[in-house]
Amino acid sequence: MDLSSLEIFRCVAEEQSVTRAAARLHRVQSNVTTRIKQLEDDLGVALFLRDGKRMTLTDPGREFLAYASQLLALAAEARQALHPQTASGSLRLGSMESTAASRLPAPLAAFHRACPQVRLEVTTGTSQALLDGVLSRRLDCALIAHPEALRVEPAVDMALERGLQGLPVFREELLLALPEDHPAVSTADDVQVRTLAGFARGCTYRQLAEDWLNSAGPPVQVQEVGSYHAILACVSAGACVGLLPRSLLDLQRDAPAVRLLPLLSVDTLLVWREGYATAAFARFREALGASA
């Protein structure tokens, strides 16, 4: 079970095909097939279900993929850590959708200019999904909204649960969006629309909106959507309310046909595993700091 075998296994799992994996890895198909068979013999389990040319992970295969990904990530991190003055390798960044749209273009451009040799991979998702990605080493770092961010002083490193470190990098003003013809709102009691348009569970903004709205009146229903454009569409139609950062709304060419109520401010944190330190990550932190 060497790193080369793990890389071949992960590639076949991602491509679901020996043929495509061999082409991607620049290996002959027979070599890929042999290495997968050797790995299965070594582990004593079948990692794939073979349906013609299609390769689908078995339950043990899916479990092993998580470990293989962590081992490969740790090996890459170790290589980078041995050369602390040279930014190289890859940096796998997770980000909330709103942050990726409104906050990241400038620092990512600056980072690429400073470190063109680093392969940057950006993934978006809910804060909880991104936290899980950092903990499982699928991501090196992530930009999230975290409940602890409501209580932290700006620009101060903080220790989060489960061996994570966090640093506030952006301050977001969150606005409650209501239908344009909704009466003025001062408290949660005044909100007449009892459906919230938001992302899937694990989104901190959604949880903050639910907590505030549920502090008065009947519990809100949640209409799960996949984008902030969809949230605004639901609100504009009069069917929902939504919670959005002002920085995202500032990107809109035309003002949306909604009523906006400033609700609260919360920090966006850069989070990473304790002990994670590479030159690429240090340069990325510098780029974020320069743009904040």
TrEMBL record:
<dbReference type="Pfam" id="PF00126">
    <property type="entry name" value="HTH_1"/>
</dbReference>
<keyword id="KW-0238">DNA-binding</keyword>
<dbReference type="InterPro" id="IPR036388">
    <property type="entry name" value="WH-like_DNA-bd_sf"/>
</dbReference>
<comment type="similarity">
    <text>Belongs to the LysR transcriptional regulatory family.</text>
</comment>
<keyword id="KW-0804">Transcription</keyword>
<feature type="domain" description="HTH lysR-type">
    <location>
        <begin position="1"/>
        <end position="58"/>
    </location>
</feature>
<protein>
    <submittedName>
        <fullName>DNA-binding transcriptional regulator, LysR family</fullName>
    </submittedName>
</protein>
<dbReference type="GO" id="GO:0000976">
    <property type="term" value="F:transcription cis-regulatory region binding"/>
</dbReference>
<dbReference type="Pfam" id="PF03466">
    <property type="entry name" value="LysR_substrate"/>
</dbReference>
<dbReference type="InterPro" id="IPR036390">
    <property type="entry name" value="WH_DNA-bd_sf"/>
</dbReference>
<dbReference type="InterPro" id="IPR000847">
    <property type="entry name" value="LysR_HTH_N"/>
</dbReference>
<keyword id="KW-0805">Transcription regulation</keyword>
<dbReference type="GO" id="GO:0003700">
    <property type="term" value="F:DNA-binding transcription factor activity"/>
</dbReference>
<dbReference type="InterPro" id="IPR005119">
    <property type="entry name" value="LysR_subst-bd"/>
</dbReference>
